[in-house]
């Protein structure tokens, strides 16, 4: 395997697809980025059977502690392990500093945008974003119009997906502002690596991620209503054990030291939320909810929901409880809204975007639709409300029939799609069945917005497309995860 195939390790763009092969060796260490130099030596000098043993131990660890995710519609199994790759992804301190500045700017703009579209709507009046894109969006909640959310923050926990190209440029692939998941894997991946490869950590100064639960709890506490007690009660609201991310819900509740509750554990009285306890009702001040808007309150949204708490929205709008994230943040996840983020950042912050979008064609626009239809075989086409790698076309990997079918979808409902070029995504060394091979990766850092500050632990969830040549990193589509190292110095 030529060393240049691993462009995150060398900074050299991969010129074309490379077959799987053994661990890289031979080229001069000068070709390796300084951040990867010790890792390269480790890969070259470690016997392959050591990797096999450690990978088996990692899988055993994950099985014992129950790190699984559910796959809806999967007839073979209701739960799976997310594959874990034992070779970490490495970022330098300057690279992380750049990402951190860009993430803070972007999440600040997202919060200002949400406050505006549910308030004065200056961005619509100024023509920054089309009004119909907001008003007709299924995630735009009229119930939130002119409601001042606690401390003026809508997105308290954001997961911003970042990709890096072979040319060493970072781009935002999408924003996750509703109920972003995956932080438990970031934390557990680090714990596994510390257990299995202590000798590797002794050769690197890796910034810790273990402070995330403390940072999250501090963020949630800071968002408590002004009427809350000095020691506000925080709970994590889950749909229950059949939810695909239930492991993460229980994991985070345990790490935060807060109660994990379902709808039946809560009730409202006089516009105040209470939790049932063995010692009687206890007032709740902050709800970290992992339930989508539609299911939060059957009196306001879906009347058939058994996952929500009747009266919750009334209590929320009375100001007696904080919901994290706020109701109505899902519009920021919309991929058509995403395409306007450069303009949104400039309008609300007065600054040029630090992190750029992937170039995007809005199929709702006539000229863009014509271009996309003529070039479907070269583009990635996504549903504006899609997620998890579903509802998309990867043109270069699609069959002629799939391209024709997607073309019909676009002509029928162009407003529901955007298109992007197939970027030359960077590759990291990844341990696969035949040895060490390049695989495409992305990164999901987690951004916490409290009442007065923004916190980001140095790292995030690196997702890896384990199938050779694949650009889809989602776990539901066969992707795996890696530990993400930000070097401190």
Verbal overview:
This is Circularly permuted ATP-grasp type 2 domain-containing protein. Residues 1-30 are annotated as: Disordered. Pfam families: CP_ATPgrasp_2. This protein is of the alpha+beta class and 489 residues long. Among the domains are: 106-159 and 211-349, Rossmann fold; 359-421, Dna Ligase, domain 1 (2-Layer Sandwich). Helices cover 30% and strands 21% of the residues. The chain has 15 helices and 23 strands. It has helices spanning 7-10, 37-45, 48-65, 93-117, 122-125, 131-135, 183-196, 198-201, 212-222, 246-256, 312-318, 335-338, 341-349, 366-374, 400-412, and strands at residues 69-70, 79-80, 84-91, 157-164, 170-176, 234-237, 259-261, 266-269, 272-275, 282-283, 286-289, 322-324, 356-357, 361-362, 379-383, 392-394, 417-421, 427-432, 435-444, 446-449, 454-456, 461-464, 480-486. The protein has a 5-stranded mixed sheet with strand order 3-23-22-19-18. A hairpin with a 2-residue loop joins strand 8 (266-269) and strand 9. Helix 3 (48-65) packs across helix 7 and helix 4 packs across helix 13 (341-349).
């Amino acid at each position: 395997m030529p060393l240049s195939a691993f462009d995150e390790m060398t900074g050299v763009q991969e010129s074309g697809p490379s077959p799987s092969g053994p661990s890289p060796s031979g080229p001069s260490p000068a070709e390796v980025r300084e951040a990867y130099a010790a890792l390269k030596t480790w890969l070259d000098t470690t016997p392959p059977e050591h990797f096999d043993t450690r990978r088996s131990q990692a899988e055993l660890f994950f099985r014992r502690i129950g790190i699984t995710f559910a796959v809806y519609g999967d007839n073979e199994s209701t739960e799976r392990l997310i594959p874990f790759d034992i070779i970490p992804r490495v970022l330098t301190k300057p690279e992380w500093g750049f990402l951190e500045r860009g993430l803070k700017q972007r999440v600040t703009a997202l919060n200002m945008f949400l406050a505006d579209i549910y308030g004065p709507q200056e961005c619509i009046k100024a023509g920054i974003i089309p009004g119909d894109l907001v008003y007709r969006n299924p995630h735009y909640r009229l119930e939130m119009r002119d409601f001042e959310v606690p401390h003026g923050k809508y997105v308290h926990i954001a997961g911003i997906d970042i990709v890096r190209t072979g040319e060493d440029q970072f781009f935002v692939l999408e924003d996750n502002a509703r109920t972003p998941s995956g932080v438990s894997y970031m934390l557990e991946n680090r714990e596994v690596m510390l257990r299995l490869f202590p000798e590797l950590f002794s050769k690197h100064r890796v910034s810790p991620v273990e402070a995330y639960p403390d940072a999250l709890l501090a963020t949630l506490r800071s968002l408590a209503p002004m009427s809350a007690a000095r020691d506000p009660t925080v709970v994590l609201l889950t749909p229950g054990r059949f939810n695909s991310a239930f492991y993460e819900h229980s994991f985070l509740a345990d790490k935060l030291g807060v109660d994990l509750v379902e709808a039946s554990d809560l009730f409202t009285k006089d516009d105040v939320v209470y939790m049932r306890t063995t010692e009687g009702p206890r007032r709740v001040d902050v709800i970290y909810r992992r339930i989508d808007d539609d299911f939060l309150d059957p009196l306001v949204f879906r009347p058939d929901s058994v996952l929500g708490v009747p009266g919750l929205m009334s209590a929320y709008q009375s100001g007696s409880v904080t919901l994290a994230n706020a109701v109505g943040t899902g519009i920021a996840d919309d991929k058509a809204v995403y395409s306007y983020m450069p303009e949104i950042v400039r309008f609300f912050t007065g600054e040029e975007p630090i992190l750029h979008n992937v170039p995007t064609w809005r199929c709702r626009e006539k000229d863009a639709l014509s271009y996309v239809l003529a070039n479907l075989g070269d583009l990635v086409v996504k549903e504006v409300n899609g997620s998890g790698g579903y509802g998309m076309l990867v043109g270069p990997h699609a069959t002629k029939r799939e391209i024709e079918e997607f073309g019909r979808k676009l002509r029928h409902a162009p407003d529901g799609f955007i298109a992007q070029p197939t970027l030359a995504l960077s590759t990291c060394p990844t341990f696969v069945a035949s040895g060490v091979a390049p695989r495409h990766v992305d990164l999901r850092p987690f951004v916490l917005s409290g009442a007065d500050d923004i916190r980001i632990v140095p790292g995030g969830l690196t997702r890896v497309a384990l199938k050779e040549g694949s650009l889809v990193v989602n776990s539901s589509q066969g992707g795996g995860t890696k530990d993400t190292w930000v070097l401190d110095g």
